[in-house]
């Protein structure tokens, strides 16, 4: 994978996230602040992320599939997240994660996630 050029916005390093939506379109979002992938999705009106619990790791309605190229850069899921992933509505895959549990950092620049076909 070719590293993306670093982007600066008013002196702040921007991190780019790509959301592959349920209709196969891709939304690109630039993040200039500390937030979870779920918060970024909600603030950017990404369809398919429900986040009913508001990011408390208590509902699994922010289920995403992390692109394989980024799996080694994302911290491993903790036990509570794994338990929630056991109950997701869409297929659970090895790259399934809850968006509320992934903090956006500059190391994740270019992160691509896929929104599952359903959250309920």
TrEMBL record:
Sequence ranges assigned to domain 2Fe-2S ferredoxin-type in this UniProt record: 15-119
Classification via Gene3D superfamilies: 3.10.20.30
Cofactor: [2Fe-2S] cluster
Keyword field contains tRNA processing: no
Keywords, sorted A to Z: 2Fe-2S, Iron, Iron-sulfur, Metal-binding
Entry superkingdom: Bacteria
InterPro entries, per database record: 2Fe-2S_ferredoxin-like_sf, 2Fe-2S_ferredoxin-type, Adrenodoxin-like, Adrenodoxin_Fe-S_BS, Beta-grasp_dom_sf
BP GO terms, sorted: P450-containing electron transport chain
SUPFAM superfamilies reported for this sequence: 2Fe-2S ferredoxin-like
Record's keyword annotation contains Iron: yes
CC terms in the record's Gene Ontology section: cytosol
GO MF, any single term: 2 iron, 2 sulfur cluster binding
Family per record: Belongs to the adrenodoxin/putidaredoxin family.
Protein's name according to its UniProt entry: Ferredoxin
Organism per entry: Acetobacter persici
